[in-house]
Amino acid sequence: MIGTGSAFPRHSYNSCYAIKNNGGLMLVDAGGGNGIFNAINDSGIKFADIHHIFITHTHTDHILGAVWLIRGIINMSKDGENCGSLHVYGNSSVCNALRVICQLTFLASDYALFTKNVELVEIAEESSLTINDTLIECFDVYSKNVAQTGFRMTFDCGEKLACLGDESLTEDNLKKIKGCDTLICGAFCRYEDKEIYKPYEKHHHTVRDVAILAEKAKVKNLVLVHSEDDNLENRQELYRAEASKYYSGNVFIPVDGGRLVF
Ligand SMILES: [Zn+2]
């Protein structure tokens, strides 16, 4: 877990994480800026090992870190380092936004290296791809405010992991995670703190809301991210206590740099 914070974190980095399988890494989202470099270092990940980045949607707290990673690989290439290609996966809005932002904000000579080192892979709704020999089935998470892509990932052992970007598990996307063992999704705050953080105004949901549906979906492992970070020391304990009232599986409330093994 590279970052676990929401769009405006105060004590953490924006939610993004790396999934390691078959010896390869896939980054899911990149947070909102060049803090991504420190965040990946703190997570024990080498920048040179990142060749696949899945961006769920165009919001600043998910996509702008990717602009810096693209700039990073262009710099390595200019320095003559053999860094391999960077494959960035996203829906058409994500690919267009990255192309335009990089073109408008990079030196022309750097942007010229974009196509040489970076492959933007546009994901169609309900399509699948293979990354690090692993099947990734993409789907619309039915976010209310932006086109957002989630995915199911099937590992060699048969276990399935689903990721919903910063969207919570909802009645709308519940069927998309059918049969999945592990779910990583957003939970903005505890239900009892809803008046403080106002999650529903931001199209987000609470730990309780997600826990109720996760029980219905029978997922074994529930990983909650994209949360308020006012009380990081106690967040794990408090969120787990609320989730366990409604959900009988394993609850993971990670911190930045934390490592989860399933
Ligand atoms: Zn977000």
Summarize the structure in short.
It contains seven helices and twelve strands. With 262 residues, it is α/β, with parallel strands linked by helices. α2 crosses α3 and α2 crosses α4.
Labels describing this entry:
262 residues; binds zinc ion; 22% strand; single chain; Metallo-beta-lactamase, Chain A; five-stranded mixed sheet; seven-stranded mixed sheet
Description:
With 262 residues, the chain is α/β, with parallel strands linked by helices. The chain is built from seven helices and twelve strands. The strands form two sheets. It has a seven-stranded mixed β-sheet, with helices on one face. Strand 8 and strand 9 (160-163) form a beta hairpin. The mean pLDDT is 96.
Beta-strand content estimate: 15-25%
Task: Please state the CA-atom Rg, rounded to the nearest Å.
Answer: 18 Å
What spatial order of strands do you see in the largest sheet? 6-7-8-9-10-11-12
Element pattern in H and E: EEHEHEHHEEEEEEHHEHE
* CATH classification class: Alpha Beta
What ligands does this structure carry?
zinc ion
| CATH fold description | Metallo-beta-lactamase, Chain A
Number of strands: 12
Spans of 5+ residues with little confidence (pLDDT < 50)? none
Distance between the termini: 13 Å
Average pLDDT for all residues:
96
CATH architecture annotation: 4-Layer Sandwich
